[in-house]
Amino acid sequence: MNSLIKRVEKIQKECVDAADKNKQLNADGTTDAFTLLRRKIGLDIKGIRELIKERDEAEASLGPGTVRTVQLSHQVRTAIIDVKGECNKLQRMHDKSEERYKRKNKENPEKQKKLDLTRETCELAWAHVKELELQNKQRGGDGSKFIPRDHNQSSSNASGTKQLPDLDNDDFKELLRNDKQIDGVLDQISEQLKITENIANEMGKAATRQGVLLDTLNDKADVLDEKLENINIRLGKMIKDIRKADRFIIDVILIVVLLGIIGAIVSIVRK
């Protein structure tokens, strides 16, 4: 009789939980299929956490291997399998949306932001699933901690990680948007820094080229100086040579004049 009453209470509780879940899933009545499934996965994950907690408490009080703990363990495993199937469906919905967007081959910032958000949602859902699987294996682990995707990490690293946000909470969307905005600003800063770096590199190359040109001009100026010096020396020699010829002519003229004077004197004396 008691077992029958417990089964009736369990069926009633499941019916009430299902009704409450449907109300939570579509509170505004205009939610899309992806968001509905995301919310359902979030509620299912919370339910699995409660099952794990109940199983751990049963093991602590009744001991492992009892009928109750075995039933709860089976429910946990079944629920995890179901939620993994829902995550696969959620992933397929995102993949199809992304494929349609790429097929159009037309950029749309709003749709791209939505795709980025749905991709983050899928990654978060799978992170929750892996967290649940690890909690189910650990028996009595802290359900409020984020379990890293790499299960081979040491427990010391896992204990220091941040808390995983709830999947059915719309508030984390705002956090993701803020992260995207910050990433966008950082990308812009990075692009500007790259442009500045390119400008600096071009200025450095131009300065190097100008330095080479100046060195070439200096070399040419040195060559011209040597040529001018050689020309000046040659001109000096030429001037000296010309001066010697002038003196010779003057001497000849003076001798001729002197001979003429002597001849005139001699002719006068003879008369």
TrEMBL record:
Gene3D superfamilies: 1.20.5.110. The chain crosses the membrane at residues 248-269. CDD domains: SNARE_Qc (cd15841). Keywords: Coiled coil, Membrane, Transmembrane, Transmembrane helix. The keyword Transmembrane helix applies. One of its GO terms (biological process) is hypotonic response. One of its GO terms (cellular component) is plasma membrane. Residues 137-152 have a biased composition (Basic and acidic residues). Residues 1-28 form a coiled coil. Residues 153-162 have a biased composition (Polar residues). Residues 91-115, 137-166 are annotated as: Disordered. This is t-SNARE coiled-coil homology domain-containing protein. It comes from Dictyostelium discoideum (Social amoeba).
